[in-house]
Amino acid sequence: MDARKSDIDLVSLFRKELELCRVTPDETVAVLSEGENLRNYAEAFLSAIRNLGASAIDVNLRGQLTDTNDRLKQIGKNNLGNNREAMEQLKAADMVVDLVLLLFSKEQLEIQESGTRVLLCVEPVEILQRLMPSRQLRRRVEAAAKKLSTGRVLRFTNEMGTDITYELEEHSVLAEYGYTDTPGRWDHWPGGFLATYATGDVRGRVVMAPKDIVYPFKEFVKTPIEFEVRNREVQSIQGGSDAKRLRAYMDEFSDPRAFAISHIGWGLNEACEWRPDLPGIGMDGRAYYGNVLFSTGPNTEFGGENDTACHLDMPMSGCTLYLDDEMIVNQGQIVPAEMRI
Known about the structure:
By secondary structure, this protein is an alpha+beta fold. The protein has helices at residues 3-20, 39-51, 68-72, 84-92, 106-113, 125-130, 135-150, 241-251, 283-287; strands at residues 28-34, 55-61, 95-98, 117-120, 153-157, 163-167, 173-176, 186-188, 193-196, 202-208, 213-214, 219-220, 225-230, 233-239, 261-267, 292-296, 312-316, 320-323, 326-330, 333-334. The chain starts with a helix and ends in a 7-residue tail after the last strand.
């Protein structure tokens, strides 16, 4: 395939996504990028925006970002904070396409608070094509979010000995279905999962099994990893070589907040593959249909104050999850009819 045909296909793909986001001719859409990272995405998005009749703004930050995976290792940190001109451009737009990965940053929250909707897009094109969102996926994710928003206690278990309880109390819900058409709303293409953050206690035991996944390592667990949790914090990490590596990685940040429990949720995207070796940042594992996503670290996306740069997402398969007294996931299978494919 020649470069011109490839560019045309990329513009067409991005236009389809922007149509789901209901971009209209009277809107202004800003495309945020850094240096040369994903500049082909930036140029294709700008073309797709103009094709829809909307106004397009190219906001390209100076920087040395060459791999989005490197940003995940310092989540919440970016070069936007010292650039007020760029921030004002983004806040004045109706929508921002984020190619930088502002997730868990105060800059993203400030943009959203201005009423600007934000779409994160950093995955390789083959992932974006395969996991193209749909209105059907949105319906199932929103049905799950409605149920999660009224829940008060979440508990999940597995055959390895996991048994942990989250007291949700007053909590917000993050629902990702892959596009955004609502002022101030953030989403991530590709999406397909939901999560919440417990404002009450979190206590119990989590045991990851071989073939569970750790991000940002992008690897299967080979030997069980056992977390003991009390008072919303990981008190100990036990196990073999995988456990030692994980503990050493968290210790490198020299930040006790790295051991705080972050969000918890489950995946609903049936197009995802249980493979950590796929290119990109790992949305397949995070949104995999019937997984349970156990996470540690920052909670700013849920209104909290923990902005530690150490964030671990650990998708687990074969788990059973209860919301209050209702079974939502049964050994990796989605139970409620309104959430099932």
